[in-house]
Amino acid sequence: MNIQEANFRHRNERREASLLDRGLTFAERTATVAAAAAAEAEEIDQTGRFPKAAIDAARDRKLLGAQIPVEFGGFGASIHDIAEMCYTLGRACSSAAMIFAMHQTKVACLVRHGNGSRYHEALMRRVASEQLLLASSTTEGNNGGNIRCSAAAVEQHHDEISLVRNATVISYGAEADGIVTIARRNSDAAASDQVLLALTKENYTLQRSLAWETLGMRGTCSAGFELKAKASAEQVFPEPYEKIHAHTMTPVAHLCWSSVWAGIAAAAADRAQRFIRKAARGAGGQMPPGAAHFTAAKMSLTKLRALISANLDNYAGREHDERALSAIDFQSSINLLKVEASELAVQTVMSAMRACGLAGYRNDGEFSVGRLLRDVLSAPLMINNERILSNIASSSLMSGVPSSLRD
Q1: Neighbouring residues of 100: CB distance < 8 A, sequence distance ≥ 6
Q2: Nearest to residue 337, comparing CAs of 405, 252, 403?
């Protein structure tokens, strides 16, 4: 066993001991949050309000700081743990689950790239003790989903920095306790020469510029804002954003988002199964016309879960190896995960809708799939799939075609 493996094993042992001390497993904690999320899911969708009860439940169960290392007051949760939480919450309330997933992505950046920085280690302790909710500000101006291109720049004055950013989307920005955002390193830097900043409420103001009136995912409250920040220079992450983006931001975001979408798809498949069973019982065991569509939903859900599981294992096996994380094959596969998972999730929910027929199409009734379909349709649009496929086209040409099943 090498030093890296020994340290990893030691962290897992401390995490398990920490959880044992607190008396509840992650599954038990997440079940409580999911129950709170499910109870208000329909209202959240109808009114477009923030899912406060679900996030408060996550705070009560200390899940907002679950990834924070034990030495900083958290549980040291693994990427597998977090993805499982996202899946469970996705089955309950899409908006609450996506907020949780986005928050956990920011926490992952803090955990993996904040070590050794006095400010970021202190923020880790605050996230664990105060259960701070961190929002993300990556979309800007006319750049759309091109996260690797920033217009706004950090201005530094001695030990202080300032930033003015036209953020066309900050999900749950008004409700968050802090914002993690990207910007050009300075006013002379190229658009791709970026840094990551961790800000808390006392560091910034938000002026709403765009509303959030959408088809689905309404409770994420992803309005646009002008973000004005003044903070200490030490709040800039010490590592360049290029590295954070490739090693943590993109992999964790795509794994967590995909797990949420899989949860939504599972909820739809569950409703379809209940509908088919009820219809079959009412017809003396005769399968209804939608039975074939339910089979299709189960098949695509199985593919989706297997795809996520394989990528979770792949990332977990590389997460402490910078060279492996930077490899072209890994970067391509983790980006393709987002594309494939989003399409499979939509396919699954559509099949579930067709299995339920009119009962699924209705907005009322126990078999309604409408909200789930509207929510999951956001999946291919969050960093548009066409943009991802276009961006990785060149790197895909450089990667060889496997010569065997196990390559």
Answers
A1: 55, 58, 63, 85, 86, 89, 260
A2: 252
**Which of 101, 132, 163 corresponds to the end of one domain?**
132
Domain range for 282: 241-398
Q: Among candidates 368, 367, 378, which has minimal Cα distance to 217?
A: 378
Helix H or strand E segment including 161 = strand 160-167
Task: Give residue-wise pLDDT tens across range 290-304.
Answer: 999 999 999 999 999
Report whether 151 contacts 166 (CB < 8 A): yes
Q: Are residues 259 and 385 in the same domain?
A: yes
pLDDT of residue 407: 66
List the strands of the sheet with 155-157, edge to edge: 155-157, 160-167, 224-232, 204-210
CA–CA gap between residue 303 and residue 290 (Å, rounded): 20
Distance, in Å, from the CA atom of 327 to the CA atom of 315, rounded to the nearest integer, reads 12
171 and 221 Cβ atoms separated by less than 8 Å: yes
Tens of pLDDT, residues 53-101? 999 999 999 999 999 999 999 999 999 999 999 999 999 999 999 999 9
In angstroms, the CA 248 to CA 318 distance is 11
Same domain, 164 and 98: no
Give the span between the Cα atoms of 302 and 319, in whole angstroms: 26
Lowest mean pLDDT among 12-26, 171-185, 197-211: 12-26
**Burial class of residue 370 (count of CB atoms within 10 Å of its CB; 0-12, 13-18, 19+):** middle
Indicate whether 106 belongs to any domain.
Answer: yes
Q: Is 36 exposed, middle or buried (0-12, 13-18, 19+ CB in 10 A)?
A: buried
- Write down the residue that tokens 């693994």 correspond to: 78
Judged by DSSP in three states, 162 sits in strand
On whether the CB atoms of residues 254 and 195 are closer than 8 A, the answer is no
pTM here is 0.93
Cβ-based burial of 148 (10 A; exposed 0-12, middle 13-18, buried ≥19): middle
DSSP string, 190-229: -TT-EEEEEEEGGGEEEEEEE----SS-GGG---EEEEEE
Domains: count for the chain: 3
Q: What Cα–Cα distance (Å) separates residue 355 from each residue in 70, 208, 270, 358, 366? A: 46, 42, 11, 9, 14
